[in-house]
User: Fold this.
Amino acid sequence: MPKKNTTPSPVVQIHIPKINIRHFDVLIRGKQPLVMHRFGQVATTAIASKQAKAAKQAKEARDPEAEYLDAMYVMPGSKAGAKNAKYGIPGGWFKRAAVDACSHVDGITKVFARGAFHILTEDGKNSTGGLVPLKFSTLRMRQDYVKIGMGSSDLRYRPEFSDWSCKVRIEYNASTISPDQIVNLLNIAGFCSGLGEMRPSQKCSDSFGTFEVITKTSSDTKAA
Assistant:
């Protein structure tokens, strides 16, 4: 029976290059009012009941005020409609708008942009599910006539924020993209895509939710 080889295997050292992760902040100012329509609890409950094949109930009278409040994105610890309530914008909105803007920029593809930078929300997490704090001067309830499908129509009650602004923190790979490139994407996104409902990139082709980058500050470094 042959002897087993007891010679230890050589230790192979693997060098993992550090990603050159950096951060900077941009101040964004709205050029047109921002209209929100969060997929709230009322709509979620209706879909869940339909999928569960629950018995249909008689339609209740609509409550415009409740629908309006349900359409808002509220910062943790706040209650929509409260006197001191704090509202936010989904961080993912900025990322999607900037990625869409790649269609109007030479040399940067959407696939590349998706992996080159991220939007950090107030809790320091990635943009998925997180909110960026929103500042504004006035808030009002809109009543809009909208078309649904073929020949159907309905009314929508949604919040409209005027003179709005927010500070957005961006995390990026400095080895692949520069802050100036990201700011350029955001500026173009503010012009051609916008945020929220009735934005330029929607089929309605309105100009709500357009914005511009005012300042870029607070650059730092962090090794991953």
About this structure: Helices lie at 41-51, 64-70, 91-100, 110-116, 179-192. Residues 14 and 202 are 48 Å apart (CA to CA). The first strand starts at residue 20 and ends at 30.
